[in-house]
C-alpha cells in the first residue's frame, strides 16, 4: 500500500528551494548520466556504462581530470578532450554559482547588521 502512494502525482519534482538547480555536489549517478547525455551527447552511448561502473557522482565528476578520464576507459583523445571541456565548463558554472551564493549571503548579513543598529 505504501509504495502505491509514494509518487503517484504527475507533478514535476521540485529542484530545490527557490527553483534553484540541484547542486552538482548532490548529484547522484543518474544525475551525472543526464548531464553526460545533455552535454556530451556524441559520446554518451560510448561511455555511459563506464561512468555507471565507476559510480561517478557529481562530486566525483567535478574532480575528474584528463588522467581520470583515461582510467575510466576513454582512450580516444578527441572524445576525452571534448568531455574534459564540458567538465571544465561545469566546474566554472559551479564556482560562479557558489560565489553568487556567498555574495548573496554577505549582502543579507550586511542588511541584517544594519537593521539591528
Helix share bin: 55-70%
Distance between the termini: 56 Å
- How many beta-strand elements? 0
What structural class do the secondary elements suggest? mainly alpha
Largest sheet: none
Description:
Residues 7-22 have a biased composition (Low complexity). This is SAM domain-containing protein. InterPro entries: Aveugle-like_SAM_dom (IPR039144), SAM (IPR001660), SAM/pointed_sf (IPR013761), SAM_domain-containing_protein (IPR052268). By secondary structure, the protein is mostly helical. The chain has helices spanning 2-6, 29-39, 44-53, 58-61, 66-71, 77-116. Helix 2 (29-39) packs antiparallel against helix 3 (44-53). The radius of gyration is 19 Å and the shape is elongated. Residues 1-9 have low confidence and may be disordered.
Give the tags:
117 residues; mainly alpha
Which helices and strands, and how do they pair?
Layout (H helix, E strand, L loop, with lengths): L1 H5 L22 H11 L4 H10 L4 H4 L4 H6 L5 H40 L1
Helix pairs in contact: 2-3
Protein name: SAM domain-containing protein
InterPro entries: Aveugle-like_SAM_dom (IPR039144), SAM (IPR001660), SAM/pointed_sf (IPR013761), SAM_domain-containing_protein (IPR052268)
Pfam families: SAM_2
Amino acid at each position: 500500500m505504501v509504495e502505491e502512494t509514494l509518487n503517484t502525482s504527475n507533478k514535476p519534482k521540485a529542484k530545490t528551494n527557490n527553483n534553484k538547480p540541484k547542486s552538482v555536489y548532490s548529484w547522484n549517478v543518474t544525475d551525472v548520466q543526464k548531464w553526460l547525455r545533455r552535454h556530451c551527447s556524441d559520446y554518451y552511448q560510448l561511455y555511459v556504462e563506464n561512468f555507471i561502473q565507476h559510480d561517478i557522482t557529481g562530486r566525483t565528476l567535478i574532480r575528474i581530470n584528463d588522467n581520470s578520464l583515461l582510467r575510466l576507459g576513454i582512450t580516444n583523445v578527441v572524445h576525452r578532450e571534448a568531455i574534459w571541456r564540458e567538465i571544465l565548463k561545469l566546474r566554472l558554472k559551479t564556482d560562479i554559482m557558489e560565489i553568487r551564493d556567498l555574495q548573496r549571503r554577505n549582502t543579507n548579513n550586511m542588511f541584517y547588521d544594519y537593521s539591528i543598529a
